[in-house]
């Protein structure tokens, strides 16, 4: 069956922050939506870049060099693999992520959110 994916409807199905939900698969990658509130912890992805596209709200991504990237709706940023970073949002923000299937959102499989498909 071919149908459009309504990202707002998918985001409305959960409330947890920093718990990505897979909404589609794309060439071995998970296309995910997530809600952000407050600060996530500093982490690194040694083997993959980290793609962020803001759908709603404002996201700030602190980088290990001391800089901060601020993203508003419709803006995206790719954190290069191996760079420590910390995403955060005052209030609530909604994002779209694209990562190779199986990539732990925390950079560490022992602390990663479980993969959830909606």
Q: Helical residue percent?
A: under 10%
Distance between the termini: 16 Å
Helix segment count? 1
Low-confidence stretches: none
Summarize model confidence as the mean pLDDT. 92
Structural class label: mainly beta
Q: Strand tally, please?
A: 7
Fraction in beta strands:
35-45%
Categorize the overall geometry.
Answer: globular
- Run of helices and strands: HEEEEEEE
Q: Evaluate the radius of gyration.
A: 13 Å
Could you describe the largest sheet, including whether it forms a barrel? 7 strands, antiparallel
Protein model, in words:
By secondary structure, this protein is mainly β. Helices cover 4% and strands 45% of the residues. It contains 1 helix and 7 strands, in the order αβββββββ. The protein has one helix at 7-11; strands spanning 21-26, 29-39, 50-56, 59-63, 68-71, 76-79, 85-100. Strands 1, 2, 3, 4, 5, 6 and 7 form a 7-stranded antiparallel beta sheet that branches. A hairpin with a 4-residue loop joins β4 and β5.
Could you list some keywords that capture this structure?
118 residues; mainly beta; seven-stranded antiparallel β-sheet; 7 strands; 4% helix; 45% strand; globular; Cupin domain-containing protein
Map the helices and strands.
Blueprint: H1 7-11, E1 21-26, E2 29-39, E3 50-56, E4 59-63, E5 68-71, E6 76-79, E7 85-100
Write a short abstract of this structure.
With 118 residues, the protein is mostly beta strands. The mean pLDDT is 92.
């Amino acid at each position: 069956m071919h149908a459009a994916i309504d990202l707002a409807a998918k985001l409305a199905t959960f409330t947890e922050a920093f718990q990505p939900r897979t909404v589609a698969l794309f060439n071995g990658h998970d296309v995910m939506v997530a809600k952000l509130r407050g600060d996530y912890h500093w982490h690194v992805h040694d083997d993959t870049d980290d793609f962020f596209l803001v759908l709603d709200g404002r996201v700030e991504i602190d980088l290990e060099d001391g800089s901060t990237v601020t993203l508003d709706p419709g803006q995206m940023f790719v954190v290069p693999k191996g760079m420590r970073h910390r995403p955060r949002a005052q209030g609530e923000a909604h994002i779209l992520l694209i990562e190779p299937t199986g990539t732990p959102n925390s950079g560490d499989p022992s602390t990663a959110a479980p993969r959830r498909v909606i």
